[in-house]
């Protein structure tokens, strides 16, 4: 890792949990607000406007977030991902990202977006040093996009994807949440994108998150079943794992494919044994496992006049509480249980 000012090597500490996993990745949910209402994220009550969003004072301020990041980086965090809700809807987001990029010790800042505002912000994001981007896209059909997201803006999202590729973001990943009888008929079309475009098209198992989740056994498709759908399209050639791949198993659809396919299996083939991440929710709570409800309240610590040592200890507490695994598959078989956090606040 290089110091941004003098380009000299920086000695980075190694942060480990109780199971000897290195924790180097912090995901920041900047807001629970979003400009879409996706069917797997938003309940019927939320669609009807019955859900109260967090007030501005309930979100961590940018100054608080930067302070947490600086302490976390000193402890060994080197990679950040900005999520939401939709992170690009938060006011003055580019000023925050520019300040974030100036923090010494950060190797990698990434963003996950629904793409609606990407054309507007892509050039500024790239200039600030955000060069890796994930874009949520669950259909290639404009009318179905409206049905799934509640908003008629497929063309804006696609323009944002084209803009990101033209500017030079790499990798550009498309995240498709696969749902049986909703969008699984489009699996071949998504796979074919990877033949001609430098995209990593990622197929994500539908996860049971939320107190009113629409997840059910009939809608869920395992990655094994998804991969089997592609056998008739061509050879799935395993690719050597890259750091940017995260938990995805990555393949090329034929040797001549420009892009790649990624399969993320949090339920059927969970990757808990190599999980390196910690999440800070938009409510200011530290969550050490996406599919485990235990959280550590960092916001209260920050607003009680804490020292950096207090922040450090709160981060360590969350990491010590990181479970060995989520056992979600077993829980679903036994009682249909889910995790009760709200995806828009956890940040995925």
Instruction: Give the CATH H-level superfamily of the domain at 25-168 and 273-346.
Output: Aldolase class I
- Strand order of the main beta sheet, please? 7-8-9-6-5-4-3-2-1-10-11-12
Residues in helices, as a percent range:
25-40%
Largest sheet: 12 strands, mixed
Note the beta-strand portion: 15-25%
Structure write-up:
The protein is α/β, with parallel strands linked by helices and 348 residues long. The protein has a domain at 25-168 and 273-346: TIM Barrel (Alpha-Beta Barrel), CATH 3.20.20. It has helices at 44-47, 62-75, 93-101, 118-127, 142-149, 154-167, 187-196, 223-229, 299-302, 308-320, 328-335, 343-346, and strands spanning 25-29, 79-83, 108-113, 132-136, 172-178, 199-205, 236-238, 249-253, 260-264, 277-280, 285-287, 295-297. The protein has a twelve-stranded mixed β-sheet. The radius of gyration is 20 Å and the shape is globular. The chain starts with 24 loop residues before the first strand and ends with a helix.
Briefly characterize the structure.
The chain is α/β, with parallel strands linked by helices. It has 12 helices and 12 strands. It has a 12-stranded mixed sheet with strand order 7-8-9-6-5-4-3-2-1-10-11-12.
